[in-house]
Amino acid sequence: MVEVDDLRMHFGGIHAVDGASIRIAKSSITGLIGPNGAGKSTLFNVIAGHFAPTSGTVRLDGEDITGLPPHELFHKGLLRTFQTAHEFGTLTVRENLMMVPPGQPGETLWNAWFRPGAVRAREAMVRERADEVIDFLEIGHVAEEYAGNLSGGQKKLLELGRTMMVDAKIVFLDEVGAGVNRTLLRTIGDAIVRLNRERGYTFCLIEHDMDFIARLCDPVIVMAEGKVLAEGPPDVVRADEAVIEAYLGRGLRNKPGAPA
Description:
Blueprint lengths: L1 E10 L2 E11 L4 E5 L6 H8 L7 E6 L2 E2 L5 H6 L2 E3 L12 H6 L10 H6 L1 H22 L14 H12 L6 E5 L7 H18 L2 E5 L3 H7 L3 E5 L2 E6 L1 H5 L2 H7 L13
Parallel strand pairs: 3-8, 3-9, 6-7, 7-8
Antiparallel strand pairs: 1-2, 1-4, 4-5, 9-10
InterPro entries: AAA+_ATPase, ABC_AA/LPS_Transport, ABC_transporter-like_ATP-bd, ABC_transporter-like_CS, BCA_ABC_TP_C, P-loop_NTPase
Protein name: ABC transporter ATP-binding protein
Keywords: ATP-binding, Nucleotide-binding, Transport
C-alpha cells in the first residue's frame, strides 16, 4: 500500500532521515520503533506531507505522493495523528467528529441561506456517522462533554474516532500511548485491532511501549540514526543484537518486555 524508497530529510547538517526504505502492506498493523532521535516522527511527517523530503519517493497504491500537502493526502485517504492530540477544546466530542468530513454544504453562507434543506440533510447524515463512531469506540458517556475536558486517553480515542469519519486507507498514529493510563491504552488497542480486522483499516504506529507493540503489530520496523535497522515479527526484532545495541544506554533494558 505505502512504499517509501531511499527517503532522506536533512535539516542543515542534521540527517533526520537518512536513506530509509519501508513497505506498509494493506490491512496490516505495522509498528515503527527506535530510540529517541531515530527519525521516526520525521519519517511520518514526510510521508504525511508536513515536510517535503530532501530526496526519495513515497507512493500510495502505486501513485507517487512525494511532497503532496496534508490536505491533498487527506482526500486520498492518508491520515496522520500526533503525539499531542489536536482536538477542538470548546466543542463537544460529537461536534469534533462532525467537523471532520469535508465539503459540507453548511460551510458556505450561500447554502445556509438558500439551501437550508440540503444543509439539514447533510448534517443529519454526518451526525448519524458520528453517533456510529461514538458507539464503536464506546465513548457515549462523554459524547456531550467538551473535548478540552477529556483525559489524555480519551483525547487519543477521539483522534482515532476522527479518522473514522472519513474513508481512510491508512492511518499513521504517533505515540498513541503517550500519557495514557493502562486501562485506556488497552481500550485504544482493542479499537485499533477491531478497525483493522472488521473494517480493513491499515495502520502504522510509533510507540515506545513494547508490550503494546508486540500485542498489535506485525511487522515491526526499527529505526536508528535515520536508517532502517531491522524489520520482522516482534519477537524476532526484540531478539536482534543490532536492535538491542541501538537501545543500550537509553533505558530500554529496564522496561517491561524490553529486549533481554
